[in-house]
Fold:
Amino acid sequence: MCLGNICRSPAAEGIMRAVCDARSDADRWEIDSAGTGNYHIGDLPDKRMRVHAHRRGYELTHRARQVREADFRDFDVIVAMDDANERNLRRLAPTVEDEAKIVRMIDYVTMATRYDHVPDPYYEGSEGFELVLDLLENGCANLADALANS
Structure:
């Protein structure tokens, strides 16, 4: 989950789908993304993110939506991209058990990085989008491994 559901979280959704497809795990997982804010509901991902993702072979067709209480019932894992969104998700979690489903994407990133979160590339140039895709490719592969082994 990210703020507006137009950059990081739809990119993570697309990457995670590709990771699971490559591992033949696609039918095992339900993968979706949402934002904690309501700014871009119904919009496609940011065009810049779609362009950068497409260059890596990912097609991002998700339409932005806001996280809802039912997501905590429908999903076993809820992934936050940064501290602010993690706090928002913890406030939205209906129960302590649901709150325990929240994890941070950066905790699955093993590549060397100076970041303690997945940064929002919205106000950045091309390098910001490429960085986010690098972090998400690494984090999604490791998250998929962790889920497969649980």
Q: What stands out?
A: The domain at 8-144 is CATH 3.40.50.2300 (Rossmann fold).
